[in-house]
Design brief:
heterodimer, A: 450 residues, alpha+beta, Cytochrome Bc1 Complex, Chain A, domain 1, B: 430 residues, six-stranded mixed β-sheet, five-stranded mixed β-sheet
Chain lengths: 450, 430
């Protein structure tokens, strides 16, 4: 075979791009208050389905933190007709993967299934959504499992660091504790709380059922209509958590003796979805610590070799979620790593980003859209996110244009606004004896046991 | 193209003159192309005193080559809207990227430069930097993680001294420290020839056009002698092995590993289905007995690794507070004895098969995962079409097949048992 020699000396030219066609969802009328959206996707015999309910942790009474999560976990544990093991045998024979869990904003029941079991899977989903019976023995069992799980997670220093950071930033506010609650709050939840929360919040008003897969739209519509007809009720979104004033900068050291690494976090109160500078924030984060090629990762990993990886994120929520830099570094360089991270943030705040760097971040965020909408499960996740956070149905369609419109001065401005040094909290979980003295150069150290 | 519950992906197989195996799986459903290069080398090919080297070497292949600058892989791929990564395991090392389909040449340029022009780009500075990164990967993912050293401890006791599967892919610290630039050159020459590699493309391309491009980028790379494969003695016949280690955890966890059919052996699929029957779903055997009824386990899981020359089937259980590792192990093994003893029912096999089938589809729905599965089947089994054959193979399994592997595999003399118990003072009471 003849092959003309390739020119290796430069990046090969791109071909003509194929336009991105975002999946188009059609609305399905089910004679309920439930908003149902369906997009067909052929090729693989699967369906991804998500039921989004206004039943997140934000709707719990504050003293019952974890009620939403416990309720979500309990809907599968029995109905009027079937006990927990009968429900389990039913689902396990169908073979669908079903997950019910609660976040701060909503609860979500997600299912991944093969098309040939769609009808049975819809029967199962209708049963757990509409008629769970919450047997008291199962409530006791699942609450006990949750309490053990909450304890067990704290074996992981990364979890300890993450939970300590949000406690420092948000105190007793909703975002100050895990969406699934704390040991103290979960321990007080009774069956009556669960049944009430379900009755009030597992309702079609305000909910969204979104599905994507290899099914005839009519078959899907009939399947949903016959199982959810007559379902009624309304749940308003709970109040949006207020944004705390960022506290003063502090250094918190949680002692975990003999740790080979330090789990470190730099954080502050960030912003909600829907601000006018939303897209500039996304770009600023991508350049600072969102991409592999970001400044923080390049510095700490590829230049210094101190870590396996470092990244930053703005958690957009209905309210202002945290901004966090997170990494795990070898223990002796803990203070140095903080200084490098603060230095990178400082540079973002004082110098405009370069044209090439900005263009790379824009490309990474926008040319990757086909990849972010590849599988049925990704499509339902992205699309439901736009609904949960009220981003508008055109959020993804307009995303590219809005990212492209951001300039270097916009990036500079958001970094000045949100990432001031005086509001950044520094937190490390590691061997205090090894790092305590070093950390003093960053400010007074608040030392506690992990 | 799909019929209920089954999938068939059309595959084209080619071999370049230099021995590079090329597998094309056109799928125009999304404007993307997944490029996947899998080399038939992994941690089992490492020489004594150099554990972790295959993985460290993988890191170096992201540090540029003769025509690609350092960090160029990440920069170019992210700039084009793609994703990329590489992984190392016992038997293979892979490098892959998914890109918009108009960037196929970019992927082929980067991957062929890696394969044909790596050595001029490597320096001691890059090696030392990535050595530190990998040591921090070991600290982060294994040493500073609860139960993080469990798997490498199981391997160490399940296989005899000198066995190729005895050490973990991440390697031991002192061996990572010992790796030299000479090792890097030698390893590349030995294992990274085109005839020791498989290239898979999945996605939006015309097969003829794609093959011509592959030929243009990879065709000129000369073949090299195929390395000797390591001798892999059977791990059977050594009797039950056991070990207990302490960790910074609050409750004990028990790892039971049974030597089982390898990815190439008859019985692999039946063993896979058996693991679904044991722990996948709240009605599965062990979960029902230990998590639901007796409430002595917090979590249970079971899986069999698709490895080339040996098989490892794991059953893992984490205790609820107040249950000792010994009690937990006795309870798990009690269930396993029931299963071995002939108690498997048709209905639980049907469910386990349905769950396994759904799992298979979930591993093939995205282009990148599908390319990985095809490459894995090609490199480890010599048969890329296994991704399609797997569906009828699984669907054809009957109760007797599962019963029979359960009786064979879950035998005491195939077992390595590890207890990970809380360090003194950390255990929580019930």
């Amino acid at each position: 075979m003849i092959h003309p020699t390739a020119d290796r000396t430069r990046r090969p030219a791109s071909g003509d791009p194929r336009p991105l066609v975002l999946p188009s969802f059609e609305a399905i009328d089910t004679a309920t208050d439930l908003d149902v959206r369906f997009a067909r996707r052929t090729g693989v015999p699967e369906v991804s389905l998500r039921l989004v309910l206004e039943a997140g942790a934000g709707g719990e009474p504050a003293e019952l933190g974890g009620l939403a999560e416990l309720t979500a976990r309990l809907v599968t544990e029995g109905t009027a007709d079937r006990d927990a093991q009968s429900m389990a045998r039913w689902l396990d024979r169908i073979g669908a993967a079903v997950d019910a869990s609660a976040g701060y904003a909503v609860s979500m029941i997600s299912a991944h299934l093969l098309t040939d079991v769609l009808d049975e899977a819809l029967d199962y989903l209708a049963a757990i959504v509409r008629s769970p019976s919450f047997p008291s023995g199962e409530v006791d069992r699942v609450r006990g499992e949750r309490l053990d799980e909450i304890d067990r997670q704290l074996d992981d220093p990364a979890v300890v660091a993450g939970q300590a950071l949000i406690r420092e930033l948000y105190g007793t506010g909703l975002y100050g504790r895990p969406a699934g609650g704390t040991r103290d709050s979960v321990a007080t939840i009774e069956r009556d709380d669960v049944t009430r929360f379900h009755a009030e919040r597992f309702v079609p008003g305000g909910a969204l059922l979104i599905a994507c897969g290899d099914v005839e739209p009519d078959r899907f519509a009939d399947g949903i209509a016959s199982r959810f007809a007559g379902w009624a009720g309304d749940a308003a979104p709970p109040p949006i958590p207020t944004t705390p004033t960022p506290g003063k900068s502090a250094v918190v050291l949680l002692d975990r003796p003999d740790s080979p690494q330090a789990e470190i976090r730099v954080g502050t109160v960030g912003v909600p979805y829907g601000t006018s500078d939303h897209y500039a924030i996304i770009l600023a984060n991508a350049i600072l610590g969102g991409l592999f090629n970001s400044r923080i990762n390049m510095n700490l990993r590829e230049d210094k070799g101190w870590t396996y990886g470092a990244r930053s994120s703005f958690r957009f929520r209905r309210g202002a979620g945290p901004f966090t830099v997170q990494t795990a570094v070898e223990t002796p360089v803990t203070a140095d790593a903080f200084e490098e991270i603060l230095g990178e943030i400082d540079r973002m705040r004082t110098e405009p980003v370069g044209d090439e760097e900005l263009l790379l971040a824009k490309n990474a965020l926008t040319l990757s859209l086909p990849l972010q909408f590849e599988t049925a499960s990704q499509i339902t996740e992205k699309t439901s996110r736009a609904r949960i956070y009220g981003l508008g149905d055109d959020y993804w369609a307009t995303f590219r244009g809005r990212i492209e419109a951001v300039g270097a001065e916009d990036v500079l401005e958001v970094c000045r606004t949100y990432l001031g040094r005086d509001r950044l909290l520094l937190l490390a979980v590691t061997d205090a004896q090894a790092v305590h003295a070093d950390l003093q150069r960053l400010g007074p150290v608040d030392l506690r046991p992990a | 193209m799909s019929e209920p519950g089954s999938v068939r992906f059309p595959l084209e197989e080619h071999r370049l003159e230099n021995g590079l195996r090329v597998i094309l799986q056109p799928d125009r459903s999304a404007p993307l192309v997944a490029t996947h290069v899998m080399y038939h080398v992994g941690s089992k090919d490492e020489r004594r005193g150099r554990t972790g080297f295959a993985h460290l070497f993988e890191h170096l292949l992201f540090q540029g080559s003769e025509h690609v600058p350092r960090e160029g892989h990440f920069k170019y791929i992210q700039d084009a809207g793609g994703t990329l990564n590489g992984t190392t395991w016992f038997d293979r090392t892979n490098y892959f990227e998914t890109l918009p389909s108009n960037e196929l040449d970019l992927a082929l340029w980067l991957e062929s430069d890696r394969m044909g022009f790596f050595k001029p780009g490597i320096t001691r500075e890059k090696l030392d930097n990535q050595r530190e990164v990998v040591k921090n990967e070991r600290r982060q993912s294994y040493e500073n993680r609860p139960y993080g050293l469990a798997f490498e401890t199981v391997l160490h006791h399940a296989f005899p001294e000198g066995h190729p599967y005895r050490h973990p892919t991440i390697g031991y610290m002192e061996d990572i420290d010992a790796a030299s630039l000479e090792d890097v050159h030698e390893f590349f020459d030995l294992h990274y020839g085109p005839n020791n590699a498989t290239l898979v493309l999945v996605g939006d391309f015309d097969p003829r056009d794609a093959l011509a491009r592959v030929e243009r980028w990879f065709g000129p790379i000369p073949p090299r002698p195929i390395p000797d494969r390591p001798v892999v003695p059977s791990p059977l016949g050594r009797g039950e092995r056991r070990r207990s280690i302490e960790d910074r955890v609050q409750v004990p966890r028990v790892y039971l590993m049974f030597h089982s059919p390898s990815f190439n052996d008859a019985g692999f699929e039946a063993t896979d289905v058996l693991t679904f029957l044991l722990t996948d779903g709240n009605s599965s055997r062990i979960r029902k007995a230990l998590v639901y009824e007796r409430q002595i386990a917090a979590e249970v899981s079971s899986f069999t690794w698709p490895i080339e020359r040996v098989g490892m089937c794991f059953v893992v259980a984490t205790a609820r507070p107040g249950t000792s590792a010994d009690e937990l192990e006795r309870a798990v093994r009690g269930v396993l004895e029931d299963v071995r003893g002939g108690g498997i029912g048709d209905d639980e096999v049907e469910g386990a098969l349905n769950r396994a089938r759904r799992g298979l589809v979930g591993e093939l729905n995205g282009f990148g995962d599908r390319a990985d599965a095809i490459a894995h089947a090609a490199v480890l089994r010599g048969h890329p079409g296994y991704v399609n054959d797997a569906f009828p193979l699984y669907a054809g399994l009957r109760r007797d097949d599962i019963q029979s592997v359960a009786a064979d595999v879950l035998a005491d003399d195939r077992l390595t048992a590890l207890h990970v118990v809380p360090e003194p003072g950390l255990e929580v009471a019930a």
